[in-house]
Amino acid sequence: MTGRIVTVTLNPAIDVTYRVRALRVGETVRVPVVRSRAGGKGVNVAAVVGALGGDSLVLALTATAEPDEFRTGLERLGLPHRLVPALASVRRTVAVVADDSTTMLQENGSPAVEGAEALVTAALRDELETGAGAVVISGSVPAGLDPEVPARLARLCAGLGVPVIADVSGPALHAAARSGAVLMPNSDELAELLSAGPVEDLVPGGAAAVVATAGPGGATALTARGSWRARPPEVVSGNPAGAGDAAAAALALHLARDGHDVDWPAALADVVATSASAVLRPVAGEIDRGARARWIPLTTVEETR
Questions:
Q1: Which of 85, 266, 290, 305 could form a disulfide with 64 if both were Cys (CB 3.0 to 4.6 A apart)?
Q2: Domain spans in the chain, listed from the N-terminal domain onward
Q3: Edge to edge, what strands does the sheet with 13-19 contain?
Q4: 164 near 129, Cβ under 8 Å?
Q5: The CATH number, out of the four listed (3.40.50.150, 3.40.50.880, 1.10.1790.10, 3.40.1190.20), of the domain defined by the range 4-9+40-87+111-303
Q6: Distance between CA 102 and CA 298 in Å, rounded?
């Protein structure tokens, strides 16, 4: 049986999506469609896990003040959650989706309060000891927390034998590369990571595996058992904001079910098809299940090593 997927979000958000016909800087733009929901990468992952039939728990920092819009948003989404009040406020992100492009506006967010790391670590340990099947640590790290916090949380998971994915960037990604986590960088993040050495050194250097996503180019997996590249059967257009989170959700379910015995070609095909299906949906955290089901058997996977 697949255990519950715990997603860790240190810098959550209220995600706002504006859908417009065209975006021209310097002009007034009418917004006919506005959607707002609790967000952050881990929230998106948890929502997709649910859409795929799995159980999830959102473990996140949240505002210390009431009313808590983020908590209310999770309740509206029907997502089980365990929140650590450690932020003055929850930031906002805005996706402006035009017919031909998507523009993202992201607030940095407020700093975490003193002691936030100890609180979230204790909460995660409790979840690990009560049956978590896999953990996904994703998104940015707020001011007030050490960038190495995701790596320390990943080591906690790995030390207790629970598979963990780290979908982080910058200094947090470099630290996570030595934590025993499965790394999930995009193309830009992978290039940044490779500034410290070749990709072949990452798994011997402390990463459990590397699954790099490349948007319409598909994804690659580098593991101790081999390397593979997967390509989607067709190029899709839409809102790519939640594609990486959908990919992480798909992989987390494979890790929770199979542990170290993951069928990597099958998992990679699922990652690519699920990611592409998310692009068809208007907001992050949703997938087109029909498209995913059609695309999984049509996704091309080839061994590269």
A1: 85
A2: 4-9+40-87+111-303
A3: 33-39, 13-19, 91-97, 102-106
A4: no
A5: 3.40.1190.20
A6: 27
C-alpha gyration radius of the chain: 18
Instruction: With a cut of 70, say whether residue 32 has pLDDT above it.
Output: yes
Query: Does pLDDT of 100 surpass 80?
Result: no
Joined together, the tokens standing for residue 108 give: 């940095």
Tokens of 259: 């542990």
Q: What is the pTM of this model?
A: 0.92
Please name which of 125, 50, 124 lies closest in space to residue 80, comparing C-alpha atoms. 50
Q: Is the pLDDT of residue 172 over 80?
A: yes
Strands 182-183, 209-213: pairing kind:
parallel
Going by their DSSP bridges, the two strands 164-167 and 182-183 should be labelled as parallel
- Nearest to residue 93, comparing CAs of 104, 85, 101, 103? 104
CA distance 5 to 46: 7
Strand pairing report for 219-223 and 209-213: antiparallel
CB under 8 A, 24+ apart: contacts of 172-178:
172/140, 172/141, 172/147, 172/148, 175/147, 175/148, 175/150, 175/151, 176/137, 176/150, 176/151, 176/207, 177/202, 177/205, 177/206, 177/207, 178/151, 178/205, 178/206, 178/207
Alpha carbons 72 and 158: distance in angstroms, whole number: 32
